[in-house]
Specification:
10 strands; six-stranded mixed β-sheet; two-stranded antiparallel ribbon; alpha/beta; homodimer
């Protein structure tokens, strides 16, 4: 941006333009703006009502580490305990670096962190499971992460799992579902909050629900948030999602703030629905399922010859919090 | 298309490719395909259940004249009487040509047709009203057409008004509404059918609900349907609608038939809703309103200094059917 423009809040030179708010801000005031926005989102959707302990899902990417930083910074104001959790998928160097950056970030913030190794839980890495199942990577990874995060939160007695889904991703996902109607799990609905069911579903919260991807990127740069620079080796945006994203961007350019307004309207719809109540416990592991057998037990019946849900729960229960780069999940 | 490809149904050379149906067709079989598609739409959404007399809204463009031709061709099979209606907006040469092509088409098909002159109804042409109101052309024109068509159908005892809205227009409209949420009238919901309310709302049917714009164009060319070549002098597609249309086309290219599938899912939503029941009669003219005064009476209170609804109804009641190019509305 034009380096002559002054910050709206002080005398410094502005370094960020926030089009939908018609604000030019210096680094410091952008940081404040961003954090207040997240806190307002938490308030607007009552994300932390009745919540004492939050488990923050950390991939190692900037979205989750920005989320972690802000939650950590305001944990006393918000009245919550913050703990990180990272799933090591066993994707070679990519996973090693992810694990390292997650542990470093938690250590820097003085937060406890769990590291869950997929290999230790299920005897196979994601790569090995992909080979065995021939399923699309994102679909298999999503299934595993959802099951593991949900089960971990329940076993470890957390009230909520926070994830780093942001506005742009959420809108593309929701519109894709609306347009071509392939809804998978109800958990994937990506509302600001998906309220849990005692002992079955952990509450999911998405404090970046109204935050643009670019806002996270700028915050991450200005605040020098350590994060993984590499993108997931399987990252792939299908043409349909790309077309939707392109359209949303064009409308946003024409009408700044459009995405936030849309997300708010979608939130009203999703808050009215109560899909999770319909889930029934899996006959093998008691975790949620739509048909009596959960997705993980169904999967492992094929890959392991037996449902692994109960065994996985048992292993998760015994995992201890990690602090340093060199410790491993036990 | 490749001129060596044979028609799927006969030995002739195919002239049309229908991607979503994976069909190559000769002119004759495309005509059959198109007409059957329209008849199936009528059946699928029960558009003519309990309907004896249909008033077909004719702008003079190809959509409405293709609609008229097919309804007219199958009127005995469908068990309905078909009558045309055209509103002369008073837009100079454009309106004169529209009127002429509408009257010619009806005469060729042996159908009765009403011509309604806006100037005779309200003392002003659309141009004059635009000047007086400073409203955007499409908004004002839409308001007038909706009021006049609805009132005419009720005064003349028709069971349904058929309009030429096609798949592409309907999807852009519905998505625009979903994305930026500026819903005007509930009648504008563009479902395949909007069921009426006795004496208040005429039933609206949209037999081209599942028909692509290109299918209409090809049918119109192959069957040499006379229609106005000029486009409306106010025709304008805003950037947001253009972005939506572009996205829908990209997805359709990737997944042929996507638009039809989406329209069918949207139809389920709109059929579940019963918005028209909520309308209350206007205090001046007894036509539908959301707030006690209908849009036309509200408008004419400003432009004419008095609500014109009742006068307009009276004039409409006295309009006689026209047959030839030279007759005028009386």
């Amino acid at each position: 941006m034009n380096t002559r423009v002054k910050c709206k809040k002080c005398e410094k030179i502005a370094v960020v333009r926030v089009p939908y708010a018609k604000l030019n801000l210096c680094s410091e005031h952008y940081e404040e703006f961003f954090e207040r926005k997240m806190l307002k989102t938490i308030e607007r959707y009552r994300l932390l009502r009745g919540v004492e302990k939050v488990l923050v899902a950390l991939s190692g990417g900037k979205d989750s580490l920005v989320l972690l930083r802000v939650l950590s910074k305001y944990k006393s104001v918000l009245g919550v305990e913050i703990t990180g959790v990272h799933i090591d998928l066993g994707l070679g160097e990519y996973s090693e670096e992810s694990r390292r950056v997650v542990l470093e970030s938690c250590r820097d913030l003085g937060l406890e962190c769990y590291i869950i190794s997929l290999k230790e839980l299920l005897d196979y890495t994601l790569l090995e499971l992909l080979e065995k199942t021939k399923r699309p990577p994102c679909s298999l990874c999503g299934l595993l992460k959802r099951y593991i995060l949900n089960t971990a939160a329940i076993e470890w007695n957390f009230n909520a799992v926070a994830t780093g889904h942001h506005l742009d991703d959420i809108l593309v996902y929701r519109l894709r579902e609306m347009l071509i109607g392939q809804r998978e799990s109800e958990v994937l609905k990506l509302a600001p909050i998906t309220r849990g069911v005692q002992g079955l579903y952990a509450t999911r919260i998405r404090p970046l629900y109204e935050v643009y991807e670019w806002e996270i990127k700028v915050y991450s740069e200005l605040c020098k948030i350590k994060h993984l620079e590499k993108t997931c080796p399987f990252k792939y945006r299908d043409e349909i999602s790309a077309s939707i994203a392109e359209m949303l961007n064009k409308i946003e350019n024409k009408a700044p703030g459009f995405k936030i307004a849309l997300a708010r309207r979608l939130a009203k719809t999703s808050l009215r629905e109560t899909p999770l109540q319909q889930a029934t416990p899996c006959q093998y592991c008691n975790m949620p399922s739509s048909s009596g057998i959960c997705a993980l037990c169904k999967l492992t019946l094929k890959t392991h010859g037996k449902p692994m849900g109960l065994i996985l729960r048992e292993k998760l229960r015994n995992i201890k919090v990690n602090y340093t780069e060199n410790s491993t999940a036990s």
